[in-house]
Amino acid sequence: MAIVEIKIPSPGESVNQVELFKWNVVDGDFVEKNAEIASLESDKATLPLIASESGVITLVAKEGDSLDVGIVACTIDTSVKKKEFVSDEINVDSNHESDSKQDILEIKDNLPKIHETSVLESKIDKSKIRTTPSARQLLVEHDLSVEDVINGLRSLGKADVEAYLNKPKSSISELKNVNREIHTERLSLLRRKMSERLVAVKNETAMLTTFNEVNMQAIMDLRSKYQDKFKEKYNVKLGIMSFFVKACSIALQEYSAINSMIDGENMIKYNYADISVAVSTPRGLMVPVVRNAESMSLSEIELTIGGLAEKARNGTISISEMSGGTFTITNGGVFGSMLSTPIINPPQSAILGMHSIIDRPIVVNKQIIIAPMMYIALSYDHRIVDGKDSVGFLIKVKELLENPTAYLFNQEEFV
């Protein structure tokens, strides 16, 4: 018998422990080499546990266990081959063949009885019940069917429907089989840690939010004009996020307090913009980092965001790819949010919130026009960011976004 131990891998530097969130197999399953057999979580990221060999698995650790890096999570018996495993299953099933046949015969014997019962019940249906016009009107008004109100009567009048409506609500709920089940599931380590951090931010920072709005017409026109060429050249769509990342990276160079953080009694300022982009995943919110965004073109930013977002959603992103951001952008607009106050991503000092693009009437050169408008919000730590800087930063971002050909757009990228 050749037994292979599958040990907990290291998610990255400074992480010595993970939580076994979910087994994707059960004890005794046959697993293929390189299959994802479990999901592991640290307080910063998720990663898969991979089978290094094919064989029959024996689980050692349990779901919810906190495991040190290097601990054995399971073992695989590689001496069992898949063909042998399948043959054994068939042999086990054949031992119960006679029992199965008997069960099938019993079911067949009962089928006529079941059918007869259903036929008898079907004889009492609404087509056999006469309803008066006033009764039908009440049924429509209250979204009721005949079966809701009566069982076995051959004539239905207004008084019958009114009597049903006057019944206690519990009786109506019973007849309609209202679902009041409760489902409980364990929060992942990633979400529990995120919850702790968000509460800490509210308690430990002097967080304020300031707002502005952006006319997105110029960006929408550019995307319509160059989308096909951009996709053909880079094999990715030209999105809106790349414009915001580029605009913020420029504005952060002018308003350095927003691109900073508190370290004890010190204030650390960065001369580069490592912008964290919030991505919604099945495991919770993740924030991969676009590094040195100030030196990147729109196409480079778009390709980087696309690659990081894909890794975040399929669980292959590393901790290093989500660490060290100096500023964050989150887009609630993809879910339909009109306006929000985003929460700072610690230890950063500010976060920009994007929202839905909505056609609204605005005044331009004393003329009322309809334009695609977006509200933007900047939440900031008032301990190190003054109101003047937060307002100035948003105005600068607005100016850049409303004039993309002058500040953000390089036509050579699209031809």
Give an account of the 3D structure:
The protein is α+β, with helices and mostly antiparallel strands. 37% of the residues lie in helices and 25% in strands. It has helices at 82-94, 97-122, 133-141, 146-149, 158-165, 169-175, 189-204, 217-234, 241-254, 298-314, 387-402, 404-407; strands spanning 3-7, 17-23, 30-31, 36-41, 46-50, 55-59, 66-68, 72-77, 130-131, 155-156, 207-215, 260-263, 266-269, 275-277, 279-281, 284-286, 289-290, 327-331, 350-354, 357-364, 367-381. Helix 3 runs parallel beside helix 5, helix 9 packs across helix 10 and helix 9 crosses helix 11 (387-402). The protein starts with a strand and ends in an 8-residue tail after the last helix. The model is unreliable at 96-124 (pLDDT under 50).
How would the blueprint of this fold be written?
Layout: E1 3-7, E2 17-23, E3 30-31, E4 36-41, E5 46-50, E6 55-59, E7 66-68, E8 72-77, H1 82-94, H2 97-122, E9 130-131, H3 133-141, H4 146-149, E10 155-156, H5 158-165, H6 169-175, H7 189-204, E11 207-215, H8 217-234, H9 241-254, E12 260-263, E13 266-269, E14 275-277, E15 279-281, E16 284-286, E17 289-290, H10 298-314, E18 327-331, E19 350-354, E20 357-364, E21 367-381, H11 387-402, H12 404-407
Helix pairs in contact: 3-5, 9-10, 9-11
